[in-house]
Amino acid sequence: AHMLRGWYDSAGRNASFQTYESMGGGGGGGEGRTDQIKTMAAVRDENVGGDHAEYFSVKGTIVFVRSTTLAYPGCASPDCSKKVIEDASTGQWRCEKCERSFASPEYRYIFSVNVSDETGQNWLQCFNEVGEQLLGCSANEMIRLQQQDETAFNQRIADATFQEFQFRCRAKSETFNDNTRVRISVMTMTKVDYVAEAHRLNKLIEAFSM
């Protein structure tokens, strides 16, 4: 610790850092995949995803779950995930793609979380599998709680916050109503392996001459 502090005071304070690249390690990708492990500041400053879709990993703590809209009503067909619309006259939910109606929809998660690390924060979008992992239940159950048991619903949201994860993300620029922005979507999410993370950071420190 004293050596690290000495290096930081003498040289590290003004050093320029490049994003650390992990070979098949903490990124959560497939075998042989190389993912860059970035900080939140690097994601912002490097305009990741601004020119083309990019994949990377980031480690951070969920500080806020945007719970006003957690899920959308989806088609109940097993091979379809399109949004369905309720027919007020019949109470049925209609899927235009399948051209079928259902008594009830199959809700699917789509919501954003604010994730922070020591350099900054970003909004990450979560889909169904990640939502089930984070909230510990199906989207159908969360919608039921939201409508019938507000205390239990709020507890699920509270339990999901202030947890640290390794997120494998995809960033891509999207345009909607002439407004362009980079959307960061979570592909997979894993608990941080602190032993492996300590080894990674140790190797990163060793890469710099002290």
What does this structure look like?
Strands 1, 2, 3, 9, 10, 11 and 12 form a 7-stranded mixed sheet that branches. A 3-stranded antiparallel sheet has the order 5-6-7, with no helix packed on it. A hairpin with a 4-residue loop joins strand 6 (93-95) and strand 7. The protein has helices spanning 2-10, 40-45, 128-135, 139-148, 150-160, 194-206, and strands at residues 20-23, 34-38, 54-65, 71-74, 85-86, 93-95, 100-102, 106-109, 111-117, 120-126, 164-176, 179-191. Helix 4 crosses helix 5 (150-160). The protein is elongated and about 75 Å long. It contains 6 helices and 12 strands.
- Tell me the number of strands: 12
The proportion of residues forming helix, as a percent range, comes to: 25-40%
Q: Which spans of ≥5 residues are poorly predicted at pLDDT below 50?
A: 22-32
- The helix/strand order is HEEHEEEEEEEEHHHEEH
Distance between the termini: 12 Å
Query: What is the beta-strand fraction?
Result: 35-45%
